[in-house]
Structure formats: C-alpha cells, structure tokens
Automatic annotation (TrEMBL):
Protein name: HTH cro/C1-type domain-containing protein
Keyword DNA-binding on entry: yes
Boundaries of every HTH cro/C1-type domain copy: 13-67
Gene3D superfamilies the UniProt entry points to: lambda repressor-like DNA-binding domains (1.10.260.40)
PROSITE patterns, sorted: HTH_CROC1
Pfam families per the UniProt record, alphabetical: HTH_3 (PF01381)
PANTHER family to which the protein is assigned, alphabetical: DNA-BIDING PHAGE PROTEIN, TRACRIPTIONAL REGULATORY PROTEIN-RELATED-RELATED
InterPro entries from the UniProt entry: Cro/C1-type_HTH (IPR001387), Lambda_DNA-bd_dom_sf (IPR010982)
SUPFAM superfamilies assigned: lambda repressor-like DNA-binding domains (SSF47413)
GO molecular function list: DNA binding
Sorted UniProt keywords: DNA-binding
Protein source organism: Companilactobacillus nodensis DSM 19682 = JCM 14932 = NBRC 107160
Length: 79
C-alpha cells in the first residue's frame, strides 16, 4: 500500500498564463499537453510530471520554483 505523506505541489500556472495573455489552449499547445491538463493543473487537481513542470517554467523563462511550490505534509516519520 502506498503511504500518503500529505505532501502537495501548488502552482501559479494560472497567474503566469494570464500575465502572458495566453488561453489555456495556447499554453497547452506551447508545452505539448491538452487544454484539459492545463485546466486541472490550474485548479490544483493535477500535479504535473517533472518534465512538464520544466517545460512550463522554461516557456515562461522563470525558475521552476517560481511556478511550482512544494508543500510538506505533516508526517514526521520519513526515515
């Protein structure tokens, strides 16, 4: 059984996309995914692969941690 640590990845894809005046479809086309993928990512219901996260950060020309933030869970038993 997979252990749930309660960790999360939040993102600012929506903010960067809006500032760049891109539609969800336009961003999806630029990074090689579907519009639905961008939609669920912006809603926080999808954590992108590392490759996709790099593509998005590279597209906006910002460090990845400016768009994606790791939020540690509350499980202290990580050895």
């Amino acid at each position: 059984m997979k252990k749930d640590f309660g960790d999360n990845i939040s993102n600012k894809v929506y903010e960067h996309r809006v500032l760049a005046r891109l539609s969800q479809q336009e961003l999806a086309d630029k990074v090689g995914v579907s519009k639905q993928t961008i939609f669920v990512m912006e809603k926080g219901n999808y954590v992108p692969t590392l490759l996709l996260a790099f593509r998005i950060a590279d597209y906006f020309q910002v460090p990845m941690n400016e768009i994606f933030q790791y939020e540690e869970g509350n499980n202290n038993d990580r050895h």
